[in-house]
Fold this protein.
Amino acid sequence: MQLTNLLFTSVALKAPPVLFPKVKVLNSNSPESLTLSQTLQSETLETLEWPSLCKQLSSFTSTTMGFSAAQKAKIPLGQTPEESHKLLDQTAAAASALMMMDSPPLDFSGIEDVSGILNSAASRELLSISELCAIRRTLRAAKLLFENLKQLVNTGDCSETERYLPLLEILKHCNFQVELEHKIGFCIDCNLLIILDRASEDLEIIRSERKRNSESLDSLLKGVSSQIFQAGAIDRPLITKRRSRMCVGIRASHRHLLPDGVILNVSGSGATYFMEPKEAIELNNMEVKLSNSEKAEEIAILSLLTSEIVESEIEIRYLLDRILEVDLAFARAAYAQWMNGVCPIITSQGCDAINFSEEEDYALSVDIAGIQHPLLLESSLRSSSDVITSNSGNSVHLGDGNGTMTSLSMLRGASDYPVPIDIKIKCGTKVVVISGPNTGGKTASMKTLGVASLMSKAGMFLPAKNRPRIPWFDLVLADIGDHQIQNEAEDLGGRETALRAKETQQVQQELKTAKSQLDVVIQEFENGLRIASADQFNSLIRKSESEIASVVEAHCPRDAYSVNDTDSKSYTPQIGEQVQVTGLGRKLATVVEAPEDEETVLVQHGQIKVRVKKSNIRSIASSERNTETRHAPRLKRQGQHSKELQALPEPKNGEEVSYGPLVQTSKNTVDLRGKRVEEASYHLEMAISASGPYSVLFVIHGMGTGAVKERALEILNNHPRIVKYEQESPMNYGCTVAYIK
């Protein structure tokens, strides 16, 4: 075979004119080259990210053996051009089968990886019933797999028969151990996991005698237990097993009812003895003897089956290897359809065999059009598959490595990302220099050619156009100093995840700090509330609102926001005016109280009322007002209706004030029942002070002696904030509704 050396290098623009070999593809039979190449082979596979590509392939396998082999990057690479052509033919045959069938043409569900069981048998360990059944299921499924392959071949015409022959050849010379599989099934019930009586004549006789002995023993003990019960020596008849012998329960005070009986055990309290009647001793002895004989016979049967598996170990392992070969062939076919791969043409005769006069294109030793790197192609295909309907005409069958396959619609047409590249190298070229700016795709292009060489050797189709042509290389050696392909494929997702995690951490820290500060303010307010008088209540609320506003302002984002050119120092908001509060995240709020000497304003946003500084208030244009109200979502209310009381602007002359619907909630209700007159007066005064402007207050005073009701009505009649009050309903004399301005 002709020696071919192909060196690649990448040179960035404005870089020093030094050619550093990046990818090196050798085809040499010299001992020195082979020794050096084999030493660098594992590093080359890591450099070209071959394990990552094999993990992609593992998603399409249907057996645990195939999944494990692909995950560990142990899929076969052709050692000769003939082996690679054979692998490509198998892939093409499997692809044709997938294209023809609407569902997976082969069922791998019964195939199990029994190599560990074979190792145990070879080391002279006795196989268990479940392990023998696993081998039986695998042999049976392998035979069914071969029959399905033959049926697939026989259903088509002569051309289709030739197409599927590479698959049939894989299992053609396998010994499916039909006799061994039948023998295991004859001896063992794999559904119940028991050894059947028919497994041997001795076992059948032993079990028959044991059955008769057990029936006699059971009948005897039932009779004795019934007599003990009738004699009042036990609360109910009790038959149990102690020390592997059947016995009956009896009170310690009545053990004389079983003369010459053997005490096998005593209850924890010592009140009950478990005794073996004299008449049952011989039957129990026979039961123990027959039980031991049955176990010995079962061990002999398992030993016999284990020895036969040891004798067939080599043939079973060969069968497992061939099943793995079929699984990987269908996995490569499904993988090819998933990425719209095409079968490459491997040329192994060198440039001397090319007739340049007949066809000019064959003057290229490497001719690949529109190829994309599979690792970069994965994210694009995954996002594209989400929009393809499941009833597409052609489907790709994905496996999970557990013998099951799911259907994924096949994607047609090349993806826009990554950008396809053309690799065309003329015969006789020894060195290729790739130049361009940094991050221009030089490394990705070289890796793409290296991966394409490995994929063609492994019998995999290439994500390219037309029929790519690539020469045969004994070994593919690479020396690239980064993992750019995998980093590019994961960079965007990883960067987004990191940013989200950092942002979440910052927000959580801000919330934790703000919550801690608000807890202090609330605690101080509650402490002051216990000792404050009615006159001090308003100032206490005003102080707490100011502190809350300071906390909110300190922890709100400081985003830039355009406002009207209004001088904040000279601007004085009016009651009922909508303003923008920078400390509340640029929220729109309504002024509910005129500014005071301390240059603060009480505003309300939803149900939250906060006192903020005038410098944090910005006026807004009339067109922008009520924006938040217009765009607020409508919430469905279920069960008991609730009401949100909001501050309303000061009514103009002659304008009727709206107090909203009269719906009673826990927030707008004060219950005075059960309180003394002085206590009720205090709570009512506090409730009125805490109520918002233009809201309603439900005062529940009850009937009783009428003293609390009279005092409540007196307060409502004289309070400056009460506009009017009325009975809640004609039928409810214990509740009065007060309208607060």
Q: What stands out?
A: The chain has 18 helices and 25 strands. Residues 1-28, 385-415, 559-568, 622-649 have pLDDT under 50 and may be disordered. The chain has four domains: 4-172+316-482, 199-298, 493-627, 669-740.
